[in-house]
């Protein structure tokens, strides 16, 4: 494993978790990531954007080496407006979300909700030819309902000038649960002419090994929850070994200190600070003592929060 060529690891976009401060501090403390993505940017009623989403794509708020902003849209008109925003903000790449499973968006044929409609996908994606100076990628699922919906889209996808496709090996109806479907992934992998990145349930070095043994021609692996749980996973993959418990705790402490300092300076009051910091513990270090984790989640005051985190990282 150590001597083999390493594939690039991409940090999946996770709304509510991987915002700009998280990405910046992750790269500073853990590293090992080839590309970070912003959670999706959408067009609101009246053609406006949410200020949180605007902040997240501003160059001055982003320090990572390689960041790709992501968009979600169902019509070329919407997509054009979001890509224009990205370009105005100095981005030269955009990732198109064809995978989100949220019912509200799916009903409007956004995210994985557009996958059963090849003509709508064609109309949406043809918009990329209007922006020859930008590079586009697609992040999609096997389908909304059936895992072969992605195959019906392949002739169209193969013809487009895409930088890469990331395929989450589930259908939208599964949300984030149930088994990933490697046989359905393989059917797409065999016929896809673009660099292909695998996504779904990779959380250990063994998972990466198993994946690369079955799919040696992958161009990368995108990891989401596995990195929220073990933020050192990509770094460990580059090293070829897992970190010792001591090293891991040291890095998590440093990471937490940076996030704490950042949010203390940027949020209003301790209530907001505790609420924001608690979110990272939803996934982080799943093996931590359950009682301590509970203390972190139940804390409402900054002092009790800090005491619980110190206990957990002892
Ligand atoms: C809380 C949460 C938020 C997510 N937000 C986004 C998003 O904004 N854009 C996107 O393409 N995928 C989003 N995803 C999907 C992840 O990027 C990823 O495809 C999925 O979690 C499967 O990969 P994993 O098993 O490595 O986590 C989100 C997933 C979760 C659990």
Secondary-structure blueprint:
Blueprint: E1 9-11, H1 20-29, E2 35-37, H2 51-57, E3 67-68, E4 70-71, H3 76-88, E5 93-98, H4 103-107, H5 118-125, E6 135-143, H6 149-159, E7 162-171, H7 182-191, E8 196-199, H8 205-214, E9 220-223, H9 225-229, H10 233-239, H11 245-266, H12 269-280, H13 290-298, H14 302-312
Helix pairs in contact: 1-11, 11-12, 13-14
This protein binds flavin mononucleotide.
What's this entry about, in short?
45% of the residues lie in helices and 14% in strands. With 314 residues, it is an alpha/beta fold. The protein has a nine-stranded parallel sheet.
What would the keywords be for this entry?
9-stranded parallel β-sheet; globular; binds flavin mononucleotide; 14 helices; 2 domains; 314 residues; TIM Barrel
Explain this structure to me?
This protein folds into two domains: 9-239, Alpha-Beta Barrel (TIM Barrel), CATH 3.20.20.70; 245-312. It is built from 14 helices and nine strands. It has helices at 20-29, 51-57, 76-88, 103-107, 118-125, 149-159, 182-191, 205-214, 225-229, 233-239, 245-266, 269-280, 290-298, 302-312, and strands at residues 9-11, 35-37, 67-68, 70-71, 93-98, 135-143, 162-171, 196-199, 220-223. It has a nine-stranded parallel beta sheet with strand order 3-2-1-9-8-7-6-5-4. Helix 3 (76-88) links the parallel strand 4 (70-71) and strand 5 (93-98). 37% of the residues are buried. The model has no long low-confidence stretch (mean pLDDT 97). Flavin mononucleotide (FMN) is lined by residues 12-16, 39-40, 70, 97, 99-100, 139, 168, 176, 199-202, 223-226.
């Amino acid at each position: 494993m150590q001597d083999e060529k390493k594939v690039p690891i991409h940090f999946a976009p996770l709304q509510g978790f991987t915002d700009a401060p998280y990405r910046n501090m992750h790269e500073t403390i853990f590293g090992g990531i080839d590309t970070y993505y912003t959670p999706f940017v959408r067009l609101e009623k009246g053609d406006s954007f949410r200020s949180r989403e605007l902040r997240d794509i501003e160059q001055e708020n982003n320090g990572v080496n390689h960041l790709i902003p992501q968009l979600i849209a169902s019509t070329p008109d919407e997509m054009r407006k979001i890509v224009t925003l990205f370009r105005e903000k100095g981005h030269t790449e955009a990732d198109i979300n064809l995978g989100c499973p949220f019912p509200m968006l799916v009903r409007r044929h956004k995210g994985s909700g557009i996958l059963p409609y090849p003509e709508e996908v064609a109309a949406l994606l043809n918009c990329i030819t209007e922006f020859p100076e930008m590079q586009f990628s697609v992040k999609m699922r096997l389908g909304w309902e059936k895992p072969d919906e992605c195959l019906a889209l392949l002739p169209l996808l193969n013809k487009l000038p895409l930088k890469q496709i990331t395929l989450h090996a589930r259908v939208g109806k599964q949300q984030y649960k149930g088994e990933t479907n490697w046989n359905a992934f393989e059917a797409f992998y065999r016929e896809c002419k673009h660099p292909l990145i695998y996504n779904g349930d990779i959380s250990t070095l063994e998972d990466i090994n198993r994946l690369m043994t079955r799919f040696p021609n992958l161009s990368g692996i995108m990891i989401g929850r596995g990195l929220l749980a073990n933020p050192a996973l990509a770094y460990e993959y580059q090293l070829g070994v897992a970190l010792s418990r001591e090293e891991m705790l040291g890095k998590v402490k440093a990471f937490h200190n940076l996030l704490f300092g950042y949010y203390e300076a940027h949020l209003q009051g301790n209530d907001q600070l505790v609420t924001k910091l608690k979110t990272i513990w939803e996934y982080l270090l799943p093996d931590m003592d359950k009682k301590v984790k509970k203390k972190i989640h139940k804390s409402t005051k900054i002092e009790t929060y800090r005491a619980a985190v110190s206990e957990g990282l002892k």
